[in-house]
């Protein structure tokens, strides 16, 4: 299984304007046509969103004391192993046109997609090839419960020792929840330097759609090296504690206004760096898997001219609702469906903007949504943002927008559980 929206190119370093994910090909490889790697059909069998993740994750958050007594069905055990082999290195890249040292996974920034079915075993071997200077590393699998396998959680100093320079370690764990998530280094500030990547665990669907665009990784971006940022943040000098992000990326891309580079900064910078592009098909319903894999910023996401239907937050399927703006804090994931317009309109701007709660140099990231093949090479359009998006950007505080629309498909009361305070 692969996503056309998440094709990766392998390069020893990324030149100005290039990132790990090129423009989309004309065909998508994953739709609602059943993907059945097992001869008996869907690996989760009769399990549905009404009796699985819906309350399992919600239960963990709100009813921690009852963790061992939750009632949703146990995950399936397919016996299938999804094996990956990752090498972590330093590299030289210009995701937004500004050259800097970055951390890479298999020479990609961000890292490659991990994809599995609910109930599969995910097996990832990590090779630490970090040099100049050498460092330990460890990878954390965000949101995975790791029940009875907590030593696979990837937090050095808690579940494991760091993977030593030149060493390797194999993580093996059950895909016990389904939906959209991500992985990242839990060593120092490495994930702010680029050791991040998406994970998709397929499971029961609550709403039909035609095309899965795949993960859309949203990240604030720093031109300084992550170790210098960590050092200043932990210092006693109040003038160094607060850090400004330099830019904001969509799937590892955006352009940057090089005229804002500080005086005396001799790094090469190109202001016309490439941006990400996504193709929609007229009349089709597209699933977008939004991930805030940034280091600090709360992000606001929107697509000009298109309403989004939210179907899941983190690993929790919810009762769908329509919105023009999605807010994501660091680590949050939101799955949305977007009904493409009729005909061949466009192109349109996809927007991810850093909330006013954070400090930044350039807060706005843009990508392009296009319908016609000939528009793939077009310049960024000048479509107008939704008024709701403009208002949200102006008024955004440090938290999410109104969460009254977030309603899980099955409530705690329906599970017969009492609320714990």
TrEMBL record:
GO terms for molecular function: copper ion binding; oxidoreductase activity. CDD domains: CuRO_1_MaLCC_like. Residues 1-17 form the signal peptide. Keywords: Copper, Metal-binding, Oxidoreductase, Signal. Residues 88-204, 215-369 form the Plastocyanin-like domain. The keyword DNA-binding does not apply. Belongs to the multicopper oxidase family. This is Related to laccase. It comes from Rhynchosporium secalis (Barley scald fungus). The lineage of its organism: Eukaryota, Fungi, Dikarya, Ascomycota, Pezizomycotina.
């Amino acid at each position: 299984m692969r996503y056309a929206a998440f094709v990766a190119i392998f390069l020893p370093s990324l030149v100005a304007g290039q990132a790990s994910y090129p423009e989309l090909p004309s065909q998508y490889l994953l739709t609602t046509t059943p993907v059945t790697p097992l001869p008996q059909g869907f690996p989760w069998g009769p399990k549905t969103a009404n009796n699985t993740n819906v309350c399992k994750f919600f239960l963990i958050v709100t009813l921690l004391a009852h963790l061992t007594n939750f009632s949703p069905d146990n995950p399936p055990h397919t016996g299938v192993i999804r094996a990956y082999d990752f090498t972590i290195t330093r590299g030289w890249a210009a995701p937004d046109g500004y050259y800097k040292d970055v951390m890479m996974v298999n020479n990609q920034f961000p890292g490659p997609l991990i994809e599995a079915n609910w109930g599969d075993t995910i097996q990832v071997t990590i090779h630490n090839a970090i040099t100049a200077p050498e460092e330990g590393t460890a990878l954390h699998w965000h949101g995975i419960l790791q029940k009875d396998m907590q030593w696979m959680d990837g937090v050095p100093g808690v579940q494991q020792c760091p993977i030593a320079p030149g060493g390797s370690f194999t993580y093996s764990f059950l895909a016990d929840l389904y939906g959209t998530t991500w992985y990242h280094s839990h060593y120092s500030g490495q994930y702010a330097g680029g050791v991040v990547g998406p994970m998709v665990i397929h499971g029961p669907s609550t709403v039909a759609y035609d095309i899965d665009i795949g993960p859309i990784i949203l990240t604030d971006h720093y031109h300084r090296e992550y170790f210098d940022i960590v050092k200043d943040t932990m210092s006693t000098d109040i003038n160094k504690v607060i850090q400004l992000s330099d830019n904001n990326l969509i799937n590892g891309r955006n352009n940057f206004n090089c005229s804002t580079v500080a005086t005396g900064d001799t790094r090469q910078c190109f202001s016309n760096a490439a941006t990400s592009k996504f193709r929609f098909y007229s009349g089709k319903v597209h699933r977008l898997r939004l991930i805030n894999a940034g280091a600090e910023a709360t992000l606001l996401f929107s697509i000009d001219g298109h309403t989004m239907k939210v179907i899941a937050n983190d690993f929790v399927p919810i009762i769908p609702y329509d919105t023009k703006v999605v807010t994501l804090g660091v680590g949050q994931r939101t799955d949305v469906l977007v009904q493409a317009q009729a005909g061949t309109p466009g192109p349109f701007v996809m927007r991810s903007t850093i909330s006013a709660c954070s400090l930044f140099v350039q807060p706005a990231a843009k990508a392009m949504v296009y319908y016609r093949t000939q528009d793939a090479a077009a310049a960024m359009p000048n479509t107008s943002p939704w008024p709701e998006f403009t208002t949200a950007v102006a008024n955004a505080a440090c938290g999410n927008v109104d969460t009254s629309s977030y309603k899980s498909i099955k409530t705690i009361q329906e599970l017969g559980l009492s609320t714990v305070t």
